[in-house]
Design a protein that fits this description.
Length: 189
Amino acid sequence: MKLIYHLALILLLLISACSSSGENISKNVQAKAAIAGSGITGTLKAMQTANGFVWVAVELQGDPKVIKPGLHGVHIHEKGVCEAQLEKPFSSAGGHFDPGPFGSSTPVEKNHPYHLGDLQNIKISVIGKGRMETFSNSFTLTDSPTSLFDSDGSAVIVHKLVDQKKAGGTADEAGGGRQACGVIQLVKS
């Protein structure tokens, strides 16, 4: 009986040692992005928390004639590239971030609105400013299959319209055109 007790105690100590060392590593990981578009600037800040969630804050400001007051879709996209001078601005960022067996680079398909990179909409005021904060456990800033820092990186996109969070539907229902973009980068500590 003592042997079982001691083995259980050793196992418990090993498990707690492993879990606490991971928490110390992940809670110091931070990321940022400088968001820019025609008449729009902003920032994304993100931090991996000890419990596995990623805290994300997005702040935007711009000309209210450009970034209309109301709700706008905000998504993490699959590539860390923000080229504004394309026929479709910022299409270089690819589709919504959604790695894995059900992932798709098509923004509007059966897995929307369950893409791992779908964030909350941001509300822009009549003076062209907005802030959004959320927590997500759909992606990580650390090395994992759902890390934002895979081989081609990730970007944050601000869309012209509200993301209606519908499955399938049209591109407009998933946020419409892209107004601003920022490449997400690790913050060196």
